[in-house]
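pasting input
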Amino acid sequence: MAADKAEGVSNPVPPYRRLQIFSLDPAVDIELDKALISRSVIQVPWENLSPGPVGEYLEVIDVDPASNCIYDPIDLSGTLAVDGRDPSTGNPQFHQQMVYAVAALTINNFERILGRRVLWAERYWDENGEHLDSFDPRRFVQRLRIYPHALRDQNAYYSPAKKALLFGYFNAPAVDPRQELPGGMVFTCLSHDIIAHETTHAILDGIHRRLLKPSNPDMLAFHEAFADIVAIFQHFSIPGLLLDQIQRTRGDLDHDNLLARLATQFARSTGRGNALRNALGNMDEDGHRLPPDPSALGRAHEPHERGAILVAAVYDAFFRIYKERVADLRRIATNGTGVLPAGEIHPDLAKRFADEATHAANRVLTVCIRAVDYLPAVDIDFGDYLRALITSDFDLVPEDPLRYRLAFIEAFRNHGIYPVDVRTLAEDSLRWHRIAEQEQRQFEKYLPSAGVLRTMAYAYESGKLDGWMLLSESNEYLNLLDQGKFKDAEKSFLRLVWLDERPEGKRAEGKPEQGVDRRNRHMLGKAFAIFLRRWITRRALNEESPMVRKVESFLGIDLRTKGNRAEGIGPLEVHAVRPTVRIVPGGRTRTQLLIVLTQWREENLINAHGEQVVDSIHGGLTFKYRSGCTLIIDPELGMVEYAISKSLESEARKRRQMNFLCAQVAQFGHLAVERLKLKANLRPVGRRDMSAEAFEPLAMIHHGASADGEY
Amino acid sequence: MAVKKTVGRKAVRKLAASKQRAVRKQAAGSRSITVKSRKKSAATAPNKRLLPPPGEVIVRMYRQGLGDCFLLAFATENPADPRYVLIDCGVHMRQTEGRKRLLQVMENLTAATGNHLHVVVPTHEHADHLVGFVQKGSPFLKPDPVSIDNLWLAWTEKIGDPQADRLRAKRGSARTVIEQAIKKTKERANRRIAGIKQLTDRVARILEFEKPDAKMFDAADRSAVEARIASLGGPGGANKAVLAAYLRRFGTAPPTALTTVGQWERASSNELALGLLGMLANHAEYCEPGQRLAIPDVDGVRAYVLGPPRAERLLKQDKPAKVRGSSEHEFIETYLSGGSASFAFALSPALGSGAEVNDDLRYPFAAELRRPIDGSKSSLPPLYRHSYLGADSAWRRVDGDWLGSAETLALNLDGDTNNTSLVLAFELGAAGVGPVLLFAADAQVGNWLSWRDQTYGKGGGTSCTADDLLNRTLLYKAGHHGSHNATLKFDPRARPGEGGGAYGLELMSDIIAMIPIDRAAADKNMPTPWRMPHRPLYERLREKADRRILRADGEIAPLSANELEDIKPGSTAWEAVPGKPGLFWRSADETFSAGTPGPLYYDLRIPIPNR
């Protein structure tokens, strides 16, 4: 990034900015025995910050409407020497610093693991509630907004409509004074876990926006679980915390510990025990993990509750890997018995345990985040996630001598999570089907040449290419495609992508200035998507060859339709074209190109008796049955590696989805109809008055969630 | 020619109508002057009187819609002189033509009882249970009123009971906070907050349980009630009337709680209704949980008071707590008891209502760190001016999101009031064995759970438990119009191995259910529809009642056409209740003239076994 220009003297840009935070949350800070680990200094990538802080990805705006005031923004531009403000609950500037630091750390983890820039979800509606055109520059949201004191409530959430994180603060109700000051202020923006959790929601929404329109009980649950997983495995990178916890648990990380607990202070101050959620799952009185109940998943319906099971499964996998890794250390330290003597363990041993735990946690976090790229485009369930985990890990590390992938499979199986569409739970049948060479030929016709795919994969990473211009000049190659001149269109496309010089006048017109780097990526992605969509539809339209049917069955998409909204048939949509770069063992980088295709069809919502469900206000209900495919392409060879699809033609999947929707309607009535858009042309929730609908799907706590004992 | 003809017809019709009105007016006038003639007229319509056969009880469920009104007629030795118990008389403002329908109901009610009610049971302070007593044209406001012998009230309504006074004061301050929140938000609405109107509307609508809207109860109605209370011997004026009425009911010196609340600018319509009833009744009974009540001159029937509980943790519990370990359990309960009070505490500074404590501690940060928004814009940091208030940024503002807390508070308040519901179980026949009529009012989770904390009928020889009463329930008036948290299925406090957790409806079997619900009213977008009846509960009720479900509306749109319809009375003559030998039911021959047509009421005749 550009150098810090202070008074004409150009200082060398430091790689990191060091900032102090509460390691977990302020609750730990007031316990004497944890005093040494309660605060830490984390390093986030250096960037120019203006007061707020406002940087490339984030803008912290500290307005507190409930108190009818604002708090002055912190200026972190020149705080190299002192690591920012000291942790303090009574200083709003520290709050701003901490939300910024933890959110930036989370973003950095994603960028490091996915090998590309994080982009936030697009904005879909303008001030007046009108739908923004797909090419409208206002669609690009450069910065996620963070409001550290937006609510006076026991809540915090990512608002998909505002592209903002809203944190609440509240008076701790009468609780045990040994844990919290009754009536004292509790700030959710001072909890590492809550910040990381909400930031992850925002990042995931930027990658997979369909997840928020659930078509099965796992989708919102996955959103929650994934956010928890990131928060929990980030604990392992907090300096000091891990070592301390290893000492305390004597290396037994399946014993109740701070690493596996989520949002301790929040939970205590709202009477929810020691953790809002605990990755260890169920524990006995002494804090030892109990064996999981594989039937629990079948009984859990609420998203947080279901999500907790996925989190427990992932932590279980982590623990298996960790145990495997420290088995030898344990034997060495105990003369082969494996039984540690009573009392504290040797500091050196603790340090070695900690190293192994860090390694295992890193591996788990990497796999978990990488797997997001291997998910199907729509209708995701936990089983799909397991398959994505296994496949992405296989792609990264083909040899698996310690059988870490088995750890995942076993942990998931023990928690009752398995895919419905595999023959066995062996690793090779869990992996997504890899497109064989002879199948490859069928795709060739429907995808542009390797040169174009390569350009898409690499041009994207060069943030200096002009996506805005490419988009505004797209008519040139689109016309050629319409005329069936595919080769000419490719040439035109390639020329325009790499064209550096454009007439001055043309350049200035309507071009936004800010955030050039990531905005360009956003625009390039759009331009690529338009090109691909036109290419594929022009190639497939009106074709009747067996080849096109084969490809359709791979993609699960009807390629030959132009789409007809009036008849309830959606056109082919190209959702995302993005590269993913990863470092493979041996140190080389490997780039893959991801292309996400989707399509929908408006279907009647039919219940188990075979009749259309009728709502007293909206009449007969319908729903958008979505299908989609994630293509993973090797750009070097222009070959499709995976086509991870959910088919439009799958009757069984349609039935499952309808059962889910029927249950939602039965439970939530019109609310379900409006939120899940179970009627064509229904005004979508979130269009204008998201807050008015009180529908923030990702709140930490859902008010009014049903509990035991009620109907 | 044709046109002229139509006009002519219209004119004729108009004339006829005005004549009719005049006649009606005259009739009304004469009624109000001559008391005796009116009583005669009631007597001259004996078919209107509700007279149960000897040894039976008739339960009349009025069908005004979303709102409760039940009349129970118990036979005495004299077949022409049964004892009447009225449970609630209200309708929610969501109900189309609710006021007119309720008037028609009350007309029938007075005729059916010969203007004499032996017991009136106002279950709790919500308009959909009480507004009938004070609405325009109510027979309870007429100079020659319905006479009331006894009033059965929950202990929570007692003035001078320290616990009740404290609860009332808390509710009062919560209400003030919410009203302030709405007011403040409207004041700030010039900042163009997305969705603010919908949000304030929604919060305001929750409060409407507390007070009916202006159409149903306006300033004129209020003065009428106040005047009426004054004419019955209480002093006039807004607050004094209520105070006096309360005092009459209880008869002590002015309780401090009431005079110091201070936020009571004006009594709510519900408080006025209770005040009026207090003035009308000869005797008020404040019911404690476990108490046994007798109906005068009726043998072999008694009513047990199940709720509201004295234990405040249960009184505040509108949702079941999740219980994991035993040590956590304690704190969960403590937390719930503090719930809404601390919400009120948390919100009040933001609203500038320094009613309780006016100190800095309620702000998250010290005063010198706060920069008020209301000052001149130029003094604000540029970040705030440009990014937050700048052009095309309204979509990301959060000015209104915190009001979600006011909504939570309003919901809590609503739930707290529901939990003060007086729940009665009428036991017919021999104590400890007879069938039970369970009127759950709007009791929510905590109220339900508390029933297990005492035994019933100790004084009368045999005592029984709440589980016994539930087991023997024959008629169940569903809680809170069939909402999700007002009928319990499970006791979360019961640990596995301690007799299991099944409770509430799960203990009942082969019942008849009544749900005072009009789905069309609940469905209205005002601004959000209500889930009433809650579908899973409804399905289970259908199983438990073998589809014998009486409702105040037409049909719930079935999820599938294969679903069988509910069974209800099919004619105006008595017919046997399917599957229930000895029981009969019928529907009214009178139908509603306003809103959705349909019978005015359903009658259910139940024999009182071996007296």
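fyi DSSP finds 22 helices and 19 strands in chain A.
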